[in-house]
Every structure is written in structure tokens, then in C-alpha cells.
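pinned: reference chain
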Amino acid sequence: MKTLLTATFLLLLLGGVTGTLLASRGERETGTPAPLPALPADALEILEARPFVLDQPYAHEWRAEAPLVHAGYALVLRVPEALAQPRATFEPVLFAGQQTVERVNAPRVGQNLVVVVPAPERDGRVELDLARTPLWFGSLELPERLDAARIADEARAAAARGVGPARQGPRVRPFGPDETLRLRTRRELDAYLADWVELYSPEETDLVRQLRPH
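pinned: its C-alpha cells
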């Protein structure tokens, strides 16, 4: 019965957003799309997590300001399959607290997303508490169009809907500073992420090859 109810909910969710998702990026360059309906509390689960710190920062191109990223968390999420799949148009933007989340992979089958959440670092510790940080899918948008003000609006709307942190799987735990990945560049982080894509979304063989150093 629980499986049937979950499937019914996802069908209703898809029915409500399908028309919006059919528009192309070129046809939808103006306007503010409506937010998605609230997902059930157990819709998002963190399967893996690892903090990282880089010697050389990179630009976070999944938000308008493209801020430099020096640290953050790499995560594997289990999400509703309809929200994991790639789009050629506005997509349900994934947020963590006051930040947009970078989707690393785009599975055409399955529910597993490998993502990167930029976060500040202080004294060797990445300052992101996964047990307290809300994680949710917000409005249908192009993430690169969202600035700090729009992200704050999304966070307020999520809080009003009662959005909270994602469930944490048995492999997720607090990490000490000595367990943080210390890497030189984003390319080194990509090589680490490639292992997760290969494990959790094995059909994406081309992406795995792109992420691994040649």
C-alpha cells in the first residue's frame, strides 16, 4: 500500500509539472516559474557524504554570481526518479540552505544523484551541518539565473512549507577535519566523484570517462 501511495504521488507530481517542462530554454528566458509541490519528508535521502577542501578554487556556475568554491560537501542523493532525470529546459532546482546545489550526473534511469554543495571552511572544518541544513527541490528554473536574493526567496518559501534536512542513510556520519578530502583542484575532486557515479549510476559510462583524468 505504501508503494502504491508513493507511486500515485509521483504521478500526480509529474502531471502538475509536465506542461512546464516541455518548454525549451529558448522559449522560457523570461518569467518566474512556479515552485514544485512539497515532497514527502522521506523523498530525499543522503546515501554518501564527504567534505572537501581545495587548494585552487573554481567558479560555482550553478548560480548567477558564480562565486569561487574553496570547500564544500560531495553527496550522493536518492531522489524521486522523475526529478533525477536530465532536462533540456527549466529544471527543479536543488537547494541546500542558502546555496544552489550542483548536479554532477544526469541519470536517465534510477534515482541517484551525485552532487556538490559549496560551503565555507574554517580551521580545516567544512561548515555545513547536513543534519540541520534544509535540502529541497524548489522552483522550475535555470540554476545559473538564481542570485542570492532569489535563493533567499526560495529558502523562505521552503521554510513556510516546513521543508527540513534530508534523511541520512547508514553510511552518513559526522567527519572530523582529518577526514576531509584535501585536494589541489576541481579535477582531482572530479576523479573522486567519478567513482560515485560509476557505483551509483553505472549506465553513465561516458560521464565517468570525462570525470577521470586522462
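why pinned: The longest helix spans residues 2-21. The chain is about 30% helix and 30% strand.
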